[in-house]
């Protein structure tokens, strides 16, 4: 980086005459060596003939950061000095002068929400609802840097929620705040959160019922499967796509978003399905479809979606007779996971692969490169046979 005494005064102003590189070459950065120069300040001369002011600084992790201040022909050198000085003061205060990653509580919550949607592939609508609810519960924290929030602040908010008579909501808020502060702590280079204040905070209400539902296992689980399948068969004539969706969700154990976005060109001639959307982790291994699932899908097409009706996921909230009041559709995955181990004696490792869950990782796993598709197909065929035995007594002879 050449060192020059920069000036923009009259005929002696050299910022307008700094040599630009040839076309195709990288910009030349001229470090200021003149009177009033600011640390990290320089001018970049580009091959296009444009010259721009820049300032650099190091963040709390020691990494070099840079910011463009403006063009030489649109901004005086004095104004550029002032902007550079202000940017460095702001950066040393823990705030990104570029406007990125503000440390204010509400801005970190917004970043956390975007992270859940982009990186975790969560549903945008429900994630935005969670963000709005967390901000409303913690309205006293707005405008405060997240690093200033302490264990006592968090405990007081949770205690106030319990005192209002909303104990289950207090526990829900606790879990959201735990996820939020974990996100902020992992990105402490941006938020200057040196320690996680949630580590010492306990669950505010100890009387919460276990999250596992009674209908996740045993005969109650069988009753739920029968009722869900009977409902899918009942609506098949008027709502074929919804019926197909429900049956595929039962037979494959995949998440609703994954099933709804199934396309014909994602299924090869041998019956293996490679979804484009994988919610929990990013591997894209093919999923074998059992014969029963292929019969539910119907005659293969060349392209397009298997379920062209864009009914969305809200239809799942419609009433299904014969299921518990607290029934939820994701519970079908709980039932399948439980039945695979209890009834079919499938290993937890293989059950995780079938359900598209994150597989146990150890050193030995790095050395195994076996193809598990045949094993997965065998498991899904066993599961389809189990479902067939359950619903056969309800009059469903030709499933699909």
What are the main properties of this structure?
400 residues; 13 helices; alpha+beta; DNA polymerase, domain 1; 7 strands; disordered C terminus; hpI Integrase, Chain A; Double Stranded RNA Binding Domain; 3 domains
Characterization of this structure:
The chain has 400 residues and is an alpha+beta fold. It has three domains: 3-92, Double Stranded RNA Binding Domain (2-Layer Sandwich), CATH 3.30.160; 105-200, Orthogonal Bundle (DNA polymerase, domain 1); 214-392, hpI Integrase, Chain A (Orthogonal Bundle), CATH 1.10.443. It is 40% helix and 8% strand. The protein has helices at 77-92, 105-118, 124-137, 151-163, 167-186, 188-191, 218-234, 240-252, 256-260, 291-297, 331-342, 348-354, 373-392; strands spanning 3-4, 28-32, 41-45, 51-58, 64-71, 272-273, 287-288. The strands form two sheets. Strands 1-2-3-4-5 form a five-stranded mixed β-sheet, with helices on one face. The longest helix is centred in the middle third of the chain and has 20 residues, at 167-186.
Walk me through the topology.
Blueprint: E1 3-4, E2 28-32, E3 41-45, E4 51-58, E5 64-71, H1 77-92, H2 105-118, H3 124-137, H4 151-163, H5 167-186, H6 188-191, H7 218-234, H8 240-252, H9 256-260, E6 272-273, E7 287-288, H10 291-297, H11 331-342, H12 348-354, H13 373-392
Parallel strand pairs: 1-2
Antiparallel strand pairs: 2-3, 3-4, 4-5, 6-7
Helix pairs in contact: 2-3, 4-5, 7-8, 8-10, 12-13
């Amino acid at each position: 980086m050449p060192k020059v005494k920069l000036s923009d005064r009259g005929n002696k102003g050299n910022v307008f005459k700094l040599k630009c590189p040839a076309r195709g070459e990288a910009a030349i950065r001229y470090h200021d060596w003149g009177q009033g120069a600011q640390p990290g300040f320089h001018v970049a001369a580009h091959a296009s003939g444009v010259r721009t002011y820049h300032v650099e600084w190091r963040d709390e992790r020691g990494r070099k950061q840079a910011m463009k201040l403006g063009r030489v022909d649109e901004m005086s050198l004095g104004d550029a000095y002032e902007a550079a000085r202000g940017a460095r003061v702001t950066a040393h205060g823990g705030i990104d002068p570029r406007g990125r990653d503000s440390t204010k509580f509400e801005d970190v919550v917004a970043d956390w929400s975007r992270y859940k949607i982009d990186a975790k592939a969560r549903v945008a609508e429900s994630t935005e609802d969670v963000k709005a609810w967390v901000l409303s519960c913690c309205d006293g924290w707005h405008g405060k840097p997240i690093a200033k929030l302490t264990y006592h602040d968090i405990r007081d908010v949770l205690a106030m929620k319990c005192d209002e008579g909303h104990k289950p909501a207090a526990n829900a808020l606790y879990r959201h705040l735990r996820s939020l502060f974990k996100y902020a702590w992992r990105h402490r280079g941006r938020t200057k959160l040196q320690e996680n204040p949630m580590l010492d905070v306990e669950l505010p209400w100890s009387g919460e019922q276990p999250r596992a539902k009674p209908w996740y296992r045993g005969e109650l689980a069988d009753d739920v499967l029968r009722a869900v399948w009977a409902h899918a068969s009942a609506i098949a004539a008027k709502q074929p796509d919804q019926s197909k969706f429900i049956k595929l969700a039962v037979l494959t154990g995949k998440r609703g978003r994954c099933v709804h976005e199934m396309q014909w060109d994602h299924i090869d001639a041998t019956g293996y399905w490679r979804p484009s959307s994988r919610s929990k982790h990013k591997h894209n291994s093919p999923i074998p479809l059992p014969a029963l699932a292929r019969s539910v899908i119907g005659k293969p097409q060349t392209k397009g979606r298997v379920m062209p009706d864009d009914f969305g996921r809200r239809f799942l909230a419609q009433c299904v007779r014969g299921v518990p009041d607290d029934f939820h559709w994701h519970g079908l995955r709980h039932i399948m996971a439980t039945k695979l181990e209890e009834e079919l004696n499938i290993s937890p490792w293989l059950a995780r692969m079938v359900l598209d869950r994150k597989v146990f990782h150890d050193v030995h796993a790095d050395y195994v490169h076996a193809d598990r598709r045949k094993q997965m197909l065998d498991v899904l065929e066993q599961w389809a046979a189990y479902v067939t035995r359950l619903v056969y007594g309800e009059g469903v002879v030709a499933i699909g």
